[in-house]
Amino acid sequence: MTAKLNVNIDHVATIREARKTIEPSIITAAVICEQAGADGITVHLRQDRRHIQDKDIELLRSVITTYLNVEMAATEEMINIAADTNSDAVSLVPENQNEITTTGGLDVVKNLENVRVAINRLREVGIFVSIFIDPDEKQIEAAHKSGAQQIEICTAEYAEMTLGSRAAHGEGSLRAAQEIERIKKAAVHAKSLGLVVAAGHGLTYRNVAALARINEITEFNIGHSIISRSIFVGLNQAVREMIAAVSNKQN
Ligand code: PXP
Q1: Domains in the chain and their CATH numbers?
Q2: Is residue 51 annotated as part of the catalytic site, yes or no?
Q3: Can 201 be counted among the known catalytic residues?
Q4: Which of 99, 195, 91 is CA-nearest to residue 147?
Q5: Contact status, residue 104 vs residue 156, Cβ threshold 8 Å
Q6: Could you read off the pLDDT of 158-188 as tens digits, one per residue?
Q7: Active-site annotation holder among 34, 71, 95, 152
Q8: Which residue of 1, 96, 103, 153 has the smallest Cβ count within 10 Å?
Q9: What is the structure's pLDDT at 165?
Q10: Per-residue pLDDT for 251 more than 60?
Q11: Whole-angstrom distance between the N-terminal and C-terminal Cα of the chain?
Q12: Residue ranges with strand state E in 73-185
């Protein structure tokens, strides 16, 4: 079975916020992604509101016909917004003020009580809850205990090993292969506990195929690579090419 693709459109809003203006429209972006065959749209409402704004979530909710997944920190403010907007899913992620992007998974072991409270609230209003974690057995066990229905495996370390000159060198490809094994083991373990398994972060047209072969992973959340490619080929084409990359398990 081919995994689903949710397109993360945060960086369409990044371009808009660079000028604090009204274009490019993330609503148009979401509709184009859906028309191209994406299974869902993912956005990250950050506490500093650097790209996606509260209003975007409301508008996206009213136009998205596939699946709206909102990434957020497990804070009271964010959980209230999620409950009010009624997204299909919430992905709980860690957030550090000065990071360029999410760095690593949420430490559920350390924050179990806080995470459990957040998940209870979200599940009470019918929202499907995913937690973004590293491919680590203890984190998976904690995610299971927290009441999450899904884990999203952080693929950042794997992705890092596949980039540019690193990938061309022996050590990079060896470490990438080790990461694939670690991700696979984590996916199998999570599935055996009854968790749905997603993966994402730093995935590209080139490096996604190795993870697409892991049958336990049923969803990918991919943003930067698709939005980058859309500058040259258009968003519809960029999404179609990523759907093909996720479906092509041969490469
Ligand atoms: N999954 C999660 C939890 C993320 O925080 C992000 C980045 O916002 C992604 C997936 C997508 O990462 P990328 O933009 O590198 O594809």
Answers
A1: 4-247 (3.20.20.70)
A2: no
A3: yes
A4: 195
A5: yes
A6: 999 998 766 666 777 889 999 999 999 999 9
A7: 71
A8: 1
A9: 67
A10: no
A11: 16
A12: 89-92, 128-133, 150-154
Identify the bridge partners of residue 150 per DSSP, sorted by sequence position.
Answer: 130, 196
* Amino acid in position 174: L
**Residue 15 to residues 22, 33, 70, 115, 248: CA-CA distances in angstroms?**
10, 17, 19, 32, 31
Tokens representing 142 are: 């904690």
Residues with CB under 6 A from ligand 1: 8, 10, 44, 71, 91, 93, 101-102, 132, 152, 200-203, 221-225
User: What pTM was computed for the model?
Assistant: 0.95
Helix (H, G, I), strand (E, B) or coil at 44: strand
Q: Which residue type sits at 148?
A: A
The Cα 38–Cα 125 span in angstroms is 26
Per-residue confidence at 96, pLDDT binned at 50, 70, 90? confident
- Gyration radius of the chain's alpha carbons: 17
Mean pLDDT over residues 31-55, rounded? 97
